[in-house]
Amino acid sequence: RRQRQMCIRDSPTTAPTDTPTPTPRVTRSPYPFTYELTYETPYYGCTWMGVAGIVQNLDGEALKGYPVHVWGGGIDVVVNSGDKQMYGDAGWEQFFMNQPLEMNGVFRVQLHSPYGEHPPISEEIVLNYAGYCSQSLAMIVFTQNH
For residue 63, which of 37, 83, 89, 84 has the smallest C-alpha distance? Predict the structure, then answer.
């Protein structure tokens, strides 16, 4: 038997050129603001339990006048960024009680737009307190992400 060999000729081709593709960036949230939550010792000492924070843009600059809705445990209030400048130019604060208690899921916080009908612009944050003085301030930094 004869084997048939095929000869394939290389035809000149151009090498593919690499086109730079922009790297997509992941948005951490569908909301225009993300947050960072830490628990700290309150400025006022161990006879204070509550929540405080700041609102800032992507460059860390203060954003004043943003409503922060705080509710739970018989509290339902709106405080505004810029009202408590001891935390920074866009600081805000809400007192809950005069002693640290273990409380999980009782209090909630959400940032709202200062415009229009004030829709929420962050996810709802559930606060969990351990009952220690060193963790009786829930500190929330809202940062604009897009």
Answer: 89
Q: Which phi and psi (to 5°) does residue 135 adopt? A: -135, 25
How do residues 90-131 score in pLDDT, each as one tens digit?
A: 999 999 999 999 999 999 999 999 999 999 999 999 999 999
Q: Which of 39, 36, 54 is nearest to 93 (CA)?
A: 54
Backbone angles phi, psi at 87, to 5 degrees: -95, -10
Give the C-alpha separation, 137 to 87, whole Å.
Answer: 12
CA 66 to chain centre: 14
Regarding beta strands 49-56 and 137-144, do their DSSP bridges make them parallel or antiparallel, or are they unpaired? parallel
Both structure tokens of 119: 């829709």
| Residues 69, 72, 76, 81, CA torsion sign | negative
